[in-house]
Write a structure and sequence with these properties.
Blueprint (H helix, E strand, L loop, with lengths): L19 E8 L3 E6 L4 E8 L1 E6 L2 E6 L2 E5 L5 E5 L3 E8 L11 H11 L3 E2 L3 E2 L6 H14 L5 H20 L4 E2 L8 H17 L6 H7 L4 H12 L3 H19 L4 H7 L5 H12 L3 H11 L1
Antiparallel strand pairs: 1-8, 2-7, 3-6, 3-8, 4-5, 4-7, 6-10, 9-11
Helix pairs in contact: 2-3, 5-6
Protein name: AraC family transcriptional regulator
Organism: Clostridium pasteurianum DSM 525 = ATCC 6013
Keywords: DNA-binding, Transcription, Transcription regulation
Length: 293
């Protein structure tokens, strides 16, 4: 019997510059995508033929045209008959996250990342939004063939359009009570995130952040994690590593200098945190950026 961790796909989808990749199958032979899972979300377009799909140990028979959404962590497989056509877009949901917190981040993007809401399993031919989804999807496929930043920006905007369409059509599956109105909480979290943005190069204490909201440190820690979906320390490290990534790609400054300017006075700790978030070391990151230019 295979354990879930043994089924995790080892393929990297996209690259550092843009974590999105497109795939295509168009052949007169049967094909099999074996049971696997990945952290990325996946949108599959069944263009022609019949497909047998297994998602989280439930089986479905799908007749094209249809779209299938694979949420992050879903165990899935696909078997097609002969003369079938399908394409897929695989992307990391984190690419949609906003550095500056707002209502969209609070109500839609973060709940998607945290699986409090999920994409619908299927959009079938009987669904009235299938044509609109197809139009957006084809734009994603077209622009993803290019490696220009403008193309990346367009692809990202099309994914937001897709999410907006699903949201307006009430197609998302809700797994938690995501409130529509909570401006007070959003204002509080924006105050803290703004503070972090302006002070990431300095020492940031829990006490200082708690004082901004008039809370004791223990309550603040629970409050921040509930609203932001991560601890304040995790968020600070993410901001610092993103700033370090910019400096690594845009300047020739020494790695030690970059670490110090991003709030790390210990180079070993900086490298450890960078690798945890980017999955490679700072020097490897810089080398990959140079090769991609």
């Amino acid at each position: 019997m295979m354990h879930r961790k043994d089924l995790k796909e080892g393929v990297k989808h996209g690259n550092i510059s843009f974590p999105l990749a497109c795939y295509k199958w168009n052949c007169n032979k049967e094909f099999l995508v074996k049971l696997h899972w990945h952290d990325e979300a996946e949108l599959v377009f069944f263009q022609k033929g019949q497909f047998f799909v297994n998602i989280n140990m439930k089986e479905y028979k799908i007749t094209a045209p249809a779209f299938m959404f694979i949420n992050s962590g879903d165990i899935h497989s696909i078997i097609s008959g002969e003369n079938c056509q399908e394409t897929a877009v695989v992307f990391n949901l984190n690419m949609l996250s906003f550095e500056h917190f707002d209502g969209i981040q609070y109500h839609i993007i973060r709940p998607l990342i945290e699986k409090k809401i999920q994409f619908p399993q299927f959009i079938l031919s009987k669904d009235d939004i299938l044509t609109d989804i197809k139009k957006i999807y084809m734009k994603i496929i077209k622009e993803s063939k290019h490696s220009k930043l403008s193309s990346f920006l367009l692809v990202k905007s099309y994914i937001y359009q897709l999410i907006a369409l699903l949201y307006e059509s009430k197609k998302f599956c809700y797994f938690d009570d995501v409130k529509e109105e909570d401006n007070y909480k959003i204002a509080n979290i924006k105050k803290i995130l703004s503070y972090i943005q302006h002070n990431f190069s300095k020492k940031i204490s829990t006490n200082d952040m708690a004082k901004l909201l008039g809370m004791n440190p223990q309550y603040f820690c629970r409050y921040f994690k509930k609203l932001a979906g991560k601890t304040s320390t995790e968020y600070i490290n993410e901001i610092r590593i993103e700033k370090a990534s910019e400096l690594l790609s845009e300047t020739e400054r020494k790695i030690l200098d970059i670490a110090l300017s991003c709030g790390y006075d210990n180079i070993g700790y900086f490298i450890k945190r960078f690798k945890e978030i980017k999955y490679i070391t700072p020097s490897e990151y810089r080398n990959q950026i140079k090769k991609s230019k």
